[in-house]
Amino acid sequence: MASNSSVYHHTSFVLFVALILCLSSPSVAAVPSEELEIAISLLRVRGRALFANAITTSDILFDLLSAESLTLLVPTDAMLFDLDMRYSLPMYISTLRLHALPLRLTISELRSLPNASSVPTFLPSHSLLLTKPSSSDSVYLDGVEVYLPRLFYDRHIAVHGLANILPLSRSRWTDIENRAFALPPIVDSPAYSPSPRSTWWISPSPEDYIEFFGSTPAEPPRIGEVPVSQPPLEEDLIVGDGDSWINGF
Ligand SMILES: *[C@@H]1O[C@H](CO)[C@@H](O)[C@H](O)[C@H]1NC(C)=O
Questions:
Q1: What is the residue range of the signal peptide feature (predicted)?
Q2: From the CA of 114, how far away is ligand 1's center (Å)?
Q3: Residue 116 Cα, ligand 1 centroid: separation in angstroms?
Q4: Does the N terminus or the C terminus of the chain have fewer Cβ atoms within 10 A?
Q5: pTM above the 0.70 mark?
Q6: Ligand 1 pocket, mutate which of 134, 139, 142 (most atoms under 8 A from CB)
Q7: CATH number for the domain including 95?
Q8: Is residue 215 in a domain?
Q9: What is the number of the ligand 1 atom nearest to the C-alpha of 115?
Q10: Considering the domain boundaries, does residue 17 fall inside one?
Q11: What does the alpha-carbon distance between residue 113 and residue 32 come to, in Å, rounded to a whole number?
Q12: Per residue in 42-99, pLDDT tens?
């Protein structure tokens, strides 16, 4: 009799705790930072440190942590390094944003999406076109194969490796550029004196960028190299549209 009663009490206690947990958990849960930290340390040891660093030193990080779940599409360090050599910082950051999706998609979920689906990214109003060749069960996003699926899975995060880098097309860049000029300058660092060019620096602060590339053999960051009045880098855009990516390394 005593033992029955204790079991009964135990059960009601468990139910009570479960109820409290349900009531206290916020209806919109964000990605826990510990989970993203684990994903990022994993990328560092898997030879994709540049992407990991780029994310943690830019304000993309805050967007990632405020999402309910996310997918990272990770190019290799060599691809990102090459991108830095060819692109201005704003184009670089916008390209990075294309590589993060504001929802968690496992490889099987990606495969089960209909052909020619549109997948949202952290680059505002820019989505990726998902295609599946009928000959294999590979998945392509904007023509780039999801080459190393399941690099990391956790409750809120999925990470896949790409076979190449997702190009920022000419039309996308023109669109972003127009938006950037419509926005007031956002300056992260108090030490950074705003100039007409500061409209370009949506993110991150120049200091973050120096820190990020400080240890690489890269030339000094080309901060402010692109004057506001100049049309966007024609060559860079052509590179993004063509297959020079492959020839680059
Ligand atoms: C998906 O679409 C592409 C191009 O539109 C086509 O080549 C491919 O065969 C389609 N895949 C399937 C599984 O139907």
A1: 1-30
A2: 10
A3: 8
A4: N
A5: no
A6: 134
A7: 2.30.180.10
A8: no
A9: 1
A10: no
A11: 26
A12: 999 998 999 999 999 998 999 999 999 999 999 988 888 888 888 888 899 999 999 9
Between CA 128 and CA 119 the distance in angstroms is 5
Cα separation, 130 vs 114, whole angstroms:
8
Q: Write out the residue range of the structural domain in which residue 102 sits.
A: 33-181
Ligand 1 binding site (Cβ under 6 Å of any ligand atom)? 115-116, 131-134
> Distance between terminal CA atoms of the chain?
77
Spatial neighbors of 242 by CB under 8 A, at least 6 apart, are none
